[in-house]
Specification:
This protein has 400 residues and is α/β, with parallel strands linked by helices. The chain has helices spanning 6-10, 16-30, 50-65, 77-88, 104-113, 130-137, 181-194, 234-237, 264-275, 281-290, 293-319, 342-353, 379-399, and strands at 37-38, 98-101, 121-125, 143-147, 165-169, 197-201, 227-232, 245-248, 254-257, 260-263, 323-326, 332-336, 355-356, 358-359, 370-374. The strands form 4 sheets. A 7-stranded mixed sheet has the order 2-8-7-6-5-3-4, sandwiched between helices. A 4-stranded antiparallel sheet has the order 11-12-15-14. The protein has a two-stranded parallel ribbon with strand order 1-13. Helix 3 (50-65) packs antiparallel against helix 10, helix 4 packs parallel to helix 10 and helix 11 packs parallel to helix 13. Bound molecules: pyridoxal-5'-phosphate (PLP).
């Protein structure tokens, strides 16, 4: 009999998205003429920028003339060089520290697998659920949740206890809060002091507009010695359906076996060599096109539009009397409820506005009492959402 990996049994089944789908399906069945708008799953709303589409198509056509086989596990040189020139040269990151991947969800999981099971792991609460789930899946049981509450501005301070590895997400999904320079410096100093590693998820870096919020953790002094940065083309350039991301592993990072130290980057590349046969040539060409001047212009226009939608929705909810956070350097609005639970508010938003949100508790215990609204919407849909809130707002407020 084949025995199960016992860590799988430690994972609590998450019914979040299936329950949301179920509730929406029931609502639609009971209200066949309804027009439900989803501000739930944070997936892109705009089609691919034309320059990226051309880059991918041309690469495919090129492949009809000339074979392009397997790519190196950590990316083709033209894309690494482009990332170096456009993003990382100024932070002192070198070409061989940039590792391309199929998107950072996999990297978040795989990086965790390089770290010994007995290590103490710190994870923000609420946050992107994959950090916790994969930590459990990879056998970690010594997990400290770092509360992100109104009192601390949703940015946890480093704890007094020792942690070996800490997942930081900034701008954070779901709170929409980005860490400023001072907060990041505190975490880098903590990691230097504790000889810990920071896994810095910067999936939404391209949404940052505030001047005191670093776009990369390598803007912080000492970060090269403690931090791995993960970035994705998903929300930045509309690649959720294409899959492309990259992880920066500085050479100064080490993993220890007792007192013997091993270069993290060396083992990361070895791991990637085993786990992947590379990302397809056309997708990497698409990433290259996204980093061109034209690509940056087109994708920035989309992100500006998402940010504009976030601003409009946030202002409208505030007009209705809600306290809202995020939505400034982020596509997510974290809406505080007035005495309702996250699920009660989910139901109320669906019933009263025909709008799908995500109950905050789905991102961690500390998310109770909040809902997350995503601003990945076109301008027309944003206007429809705002109109619904304004039209039905009074009735809904009266129900609370
Ligand atoms: N990290 C965060 C914080 C996210 O919100 C997401 C996707 O929603 C990801 C990572 C996944 O990124 P990718 O599409 O590159 O796997």
């Amino acid at each position: 009999m084949t025995q199960i990996n016992k860590h799988l049994l430690n994972l609590k089944e998450s019914y979040l998205f299936s329950l949301i789908e179920e509730k929406v399906a029931v609502f639609k069945k009971n209200h066949p003429n309804s027009n439900v708008i989803s501000l739930g799953v944070g997936d892109i709303a705009f089609p691919l920028a034309p320059v990226i589409g051309r880059g991918i198509s041309e690469a495919c056509l090129e492949m009809t003339q000339k074979p392009h086989g397997y790519s190196p596990a950590t990316g083709l040189p033209f894309l690494i060089e482009k990332l170096f020139e456009t993003e990382y040269k100024s932070y002192g990151i070198s070409l061989d520290e940039i590792c391309i991947s199929e998107g950072i969800n996999r990297d978040i999981c795989d990086l965790g697998n390089l770290i010994s099971v007995d290590q103490k792991v710190g994870i923000m609460d609420p946050t992107y659920p994959v950090y916790l789930k994969n930590s459990i899946l990879s056998g970690k049981s010594n997990i400290t949740l770092l509360p992100c509450r109104e009192e601390n501005g949703f940015v946890p301070l480093p704890p007094s206890e020792h942690l070996d590895v800490v997942y930081l997400c900034s701008p954070c999904n779901p709170t929409g809060i980005a860490m400023n320079r001072l907060a990041l410096q505190k975490w880098v100093d903590y990691a230097l002091r504790e000889k810990a590693i920071l896994l810095f998820d910067a999936a939404y870096a391209a949404f940052i507009r505030s001047s005191d919020v670093p776009k990369s953790i390598y803007e912080i002094e000492g970060a090269r010695e403690v931090a791995i940065e993960l970035r994705s083309f998903s929300k930045t350039a509309g690649f959720t359906g294409l899959r492309l991301g990259y992880t920066i592993v500085p050479k100064e990072l080490f993993l220890y076996d007792g007192n013997t130290r091993y270069n993290f980057l060396h083992f990361w590349k070895m791991h990637q060599d085993i786990k992947t046969n590379g990302i397809s040539y056309p997708i990497q060409k698409g990433g290259f096109a996204a980093l061109s001047q034209e690509g940056k212009k087109e994708t920035k226009a989309q992100i500006d539009s998402y940010l504009d939608s976030a601003k409009k929705i946030k202002e409208t909810l505030e007009h209705l009397g809600y306290t809202c956070y995020g939505g400034v350097d982020s596509p997510y609005i974290w809406c505080k409820l007035k005495g309702q639970t996250s699920w009660e508010a989910f139901d109320a938003f669906l019933t009263n506005y025909q709008i799908v949100t995500i109950p905050g508790v789905g991102f961690g215990k500390e998310g109770e009492g909040f809902i997350r609204l995503s601003s990945f919407l076109t301008t027309a849909v944003t206007q429809a959402v705002v109109d619904r809130f304004l039209k039905k707002g009074a009735a809904t407020c009266a129900m609370k």
